[in-house]
Design brief:
By secondary structure, the chain is an all-alpha fold. It is about 80% helix and about 0% strand. It has 17 helices and no strands.
C-alpha cells in the first residue's frame, strides 16, 4: 500500500468512528433527554428506533440517486450535512426538532458508510480490500468502546446537547481529513435510478442480504437483553455491568479483525461453519449461565464472533454487483450496514417476544436457531457461487 492509501484508510476509519459515535451516543443520554424535554423514557427511546428505520429506508434509495455524482465533492457535502444534523440536534428545544435532526443524520450516515466502503474497494489493491474494509468497520466498534462513553460523559457533565456539539466537532475534524485524502478522480456511475434498484430484485442479492441480518439478529436476540441477563440470571453486581459491556466491546474489536483476515481465504465458504459455531455459542449460554465465570466467558465468545462476517459480506455484495449490475456498486456498498440495522431490529423484536412469553434465558437458544438459518442461507449462496463458477468455466 502507498502512503496515500494508508492515510485514506486511517481517514475512513476516523469517519466510521465519528459516524458510529453520533449514532450510538444517544443511548447513554435517554434519561437526560427525557427529563430535559419533559417526555417519557419510551418516547425518548423512539429516537433510537427512528434513527435505525430512517437509516434502513433512506440509505439504499438515496445512495442509488447520489451514485451518479463524483465521490470527492459528494462525500464532503454529506459530511457538512452530518455536521449540520448534529448541530441541529444540539440546538433542538423540542422533541419534534430533535427527531427531524436525527432522521437527517441517519440518512447522511448511511450514504457516507456506503461511499466509504465503495472508495476503499475502488482504490485499494485487490489483496488489501478485505483487511482495509475490516479496519473501516472497526471504526464502529471503537466508537462503541471509546467514542460513546466519552460522548455520554460529556453529556452528563454539560448536558446532552454538549454531546452533539462534540460529535459535530468530530465531524469537522473528519471533513478536514477527508478533504486531504479522498481521491478527486472517482467519478460517479452513469445509470438510471430504476436500473440501480434492479440490483435489489436479483435473487442472489436478496438471499445474501438476509445473511448479515440474521447473523446480527441472532446475537441481538441475546445482546438486547444482556443487562437483565447479567443481573437476574448470572447475578452480576449492578456496579460491574458497565465493565461487562466494556469487555464485550473490546473483544468485538478482535471479531472485526478476524473478519478482515477471513475475507481473503474463501470467506463466504467459511461463514457457513462460523454461523454454526455462532449457533452453538449462543445456545450454550443456556447452560453456562449457571456460572458467572463460564457465563462471562460465553459472552466473550459471542462478542468474538459477532462481526466476523462484515468484511466478507461487504465485498460479496460489491463483487456480485460488479458481475451483474456494475453501475450499482455504490448501492451494493450500502447493503451490509442496512442489513445489519434490520438485523438489530429483528433480534431485539424476537428477544422481546421471548422475554414476554417465556423465560429470560430462552433468548439464548432462540438466537442459536436464527444463526442456523443464517448458516443455511450461506450454504445456498456458496452453492450458487460454485454452480456459477462451473458454468463460467464451461462457457470458456
Amino acid at each position: 500500500m502507498t502512503k496515500h492509501q494508508k492515510l485514506l484508510t486511517l481517514n475512513l476509519f476516523l469517519l466510521t468512528f465519528v459516524l458510529g459515535t453520533s449514532e450510538f451516543v444517544i443511548v447513554g443520554l435517554l434519561s437526560e433527554v427525557s427529563t430535559d424535554l419533559n417526555i417519557s423514557i419510551s418516547t425518548a427511546g423512539a429516537l433510537v428506533s427512528t434513527f435505525a428505520i430512517s437509516f434502513a429506508i433512506g440509505t439504499p434509495i438515496l445512495t442509488a440517486i447520489s451514485s451518479r455524482f463524483s465521490k470527492y465533492p459528494l462525500m464532503l457535502t454529506l459530511i457538512v450535512l452530518f455536521i449540520a444534523g448534529n448541530s441541529l440536534s444540539a440546538l433542538s428545544a423540542t422533541y419534534g426538532l430533535l427527531i427531524v435532526s436525527r432522521i437527517l443524520t441517519a440518512v447522511v450516515t448511511g450514504i457516507l458508510i456506503a461511499l466509504a466502503m465503495a472508495v476503499a474497494s475502488e482504490v485499494m489493491p485487490t489483496e488489501k480490500r478485505g483487511p482495509v474494509i475490516s479496519i473501516i468497520f472497526t471504526g464502529f466498534t471503537i466508537a462503541s468502546v471509546i467514542g460513546v462513553p466519552i460522548g455520554t460523559y460529556i453529556g452528563q457533565l454539560g448536558g446532552w446537547r454538549m454531546s452533539f456539539w462534540f460529535t459535530a466537532l468530530l465531524g469537522i475534524i473528519s471533513f478536514i481529513a477527508s478533504s486531504a485524502t479522498i481521491p478527486k478522480g472517482l467519478i460517479g456511475a452513469k445509470s438510471s435510478f430504476n436500473k440501480q434498484l434492479g440490483l435489489l430484485t436479483n435473487s442472489r442479492i436478496i438471499i445474501a442480504f438476509f445473511i448479515p441480518a440474521l447473523s446480527i439478529g441472532a446475537t441481538y436476540t441475546v445482546y438486547t437483553y444482556l443487562t437483565p441477563l447479567l443481573l437476574d440470571v448470572l447475578v452480576v453486581p449492578e456496579r460491574s455491568i458497565s465493565l461487562v459491556f466494556l469487555l464485550y466491546g473490546v473483544v468485538s474489536i478482535f471479531s472485526t479483525i478476524i473478519g478482515g483476515k477471513l475475507v481473503t481465504r474463501n470467506g463466504i465458504g467459511k461463514l457457513r461453519y462460523i454461523f454454526l459455531i455462532q449457533a452453538v455459542i449462543l445456545g450454550l449460554f443456556y447452560i453456562s449461565s449457571t456460572s458467572i465465570v463460564f457465563g462471562l466467558l460465553n459472552i466473550s465468545f459471542i462478542a468474538l464472533i459477532v462481526y466476523t462476517m462484515n468484511s466478507t459480506m461487504q465485498l460479496y455484495f460489491i463483487d456480485l454487483a460488479d458481475k451483474h449490475y456494475p453501475s450499482a456498486k455504490d448501492l451494493a456498498s450500502s447493503l451490509t450496514p442496512v442489513s445489519v440495522n434490520i438485523g438489530i431490529a429483528i433480534g431485539s423484536t424476537l428477544g422481546g417476544f421471548v422475554t414476554t412469553n417465556m423465560k429470560l434465558i430462552d433468548v439464548s437458544w432462540f438466537g442459536g436457531i436464527v444463526a442456523i438459518v443464517a448458516s443455511s442461507l450461506t450454504f445456498i449462496s456458496y452453492h450458487l457461487d460454485q454452480k456459477s463458477s462451473i458454468q463460467t468455466k464451461c462457457n470458456v
